[in-house]
Amino acid sequence: MPSTTRPYRGLSAEQRKAQRRARLLEAGLDLLGTAGCERATMTAICSRAKLTERYFYESFRSREQLLLAVVDQVADEVRSTVLAAVETAPDEPHARARVAISAFVDLLTADPRKGRAAIVESAAAETLRPRRHELLREFADLIVTQARSLYGTAAHAPPRDEINALLFVGGLAELLTAWLGNEIVATPADIIEAGTEQLAAALHR
Amino acid sequence: MPSTTRPYRGLSAEQRKAQRRARLLEAGLDLLGTAGCERATMTAICSRAKLTERYFYESFRSREQLLLAVVDQVADEVRSTVLAAVETAPDEPHARARVAISAFVDLLTADPRKGRAAIVESAAAETLRPRRHELLREFADLIVTQARSLYGTAAHAPPRDEINALLFVGGLAELLTAWLGNEIVATPADIIEAGTEQLAAALHR
DNA sequence: CACAAGTGACATGAGTCGCTGTCACATATG
DNA sequence: CATATGTGACAGCGACTCATGTCACTTGTG
């Protein structure tokens, strides 16, 4: 543990560390999103990142912690993307719902690794499951909030709102899972369409 | 491999083999439904069933095959339970939907091991995922069929029906997952209620 | 240039898991 | 009772993962 640092190949110690961390995260996303959670082992991640295990422990305590960071990274991207999309959407309920759902689905299907990491594989490991739930719940909350502000009131008394939102978002997740696993004949556009309609139907009462 | 068999402890060779197989399945369900897919290892299953690995290979080729059998067993139970429930239900759409959903949710929450095995852990392993999808799809098909026969026609052109059904069933699965993981404040009754309403809303157009 | 810090390839040890084999004991049958 | 079969406890092997350590080589600094 050198108390004094120094540049190397034109990069400061912090830059190098950050770069290594990024490479580990990228390798982690790659493996989690293609080989799956089970095969996203520490050895495999280091090998793909072309880094020694020592550098793994420099940035992460354990394999699970890195996977958490990977999922969190995707979740952050989902959050910012969806929020940005919603803000630029017109004030019409149907259009607004479609924009939000579209941003969600598009991001996770455009790069299937991200979709698998955030939706499929995050449901596999016990450690990741809470994050997945949080991600879905966050998106659901956004939908509910939008719906309330547009329709003017809460549709149901709690916790029915939470339940309904999760019921909807879970369905979306299932469709994404099926799409990512080639288990369904549908395009992302189909999924967006179905989701938008179902949401409208659920709110229109 | 004895070509000649003989009774032991009052049981024939086939009876003993079937008994061992049942014990392995029970141990598998227990581990899959509590410890999780990752910890449902062959050694652990044999240990819990109090059988040697030799007897494992007598009935199953691999760990994954046993887990498949466990999930299939639960899926079979779901199928027969739901079908039986639907047949004894009145011919009214809303009631019929409620009965089907109720049978589904009740079975998987009454014995959380079954719920976890069929819904949660079956989404974890690559090998089990197709079975989970099949189970959900089967239930979805049942819903669609019921809806068609009761409302008289297909609501949408394919594959939109399939998409909508999966969207609904996936939501149910998500709610069950959340309930099984104590991630939601809701009773099975709440889930059934929400599911029934959403289904009605989705069909009523 | 000499030397310390940074890096990468590899070795080692502990712990599991899958899988096979051995051996003693239990049980049925002639 | 004697023998063959059924059973259970356990040891051993190879493979893999995690975790730590060693050593040579590269790169920057005085």
From TrEMBL, chains A, B:
Chain residues forming the annotated DNA-binding region: 41-60
Highest taxon listed in the record's lineage: Bacteria
Chain ranges of the HTH tetR-type domain: 18-78
Short name of one Pfam family: TetR_N
InterPro entries: Homeodomain-like_sf, HTH-type_Tx_Regulator, HTH_TetR
Keywords, ordered alphabetically: DNA-binding
Gene Ontology MF, one: DNA binding
Bilayer-crossing regions: none
Keyword DNA-binding set for record: yes
Gene3D superfamilies reported in the protein's UniProt record: Tetracycline Repressor, domain 2
PANTHER family: ACREF/ENVCD OPERON REPRESSOR-RELATED, ACREF_ENVCD OPERON REPRESSOR-RELATED
Protein's recorded name: TetR family transcriptional regulator
Species this chain originates from: Halopolyspora algeriensis
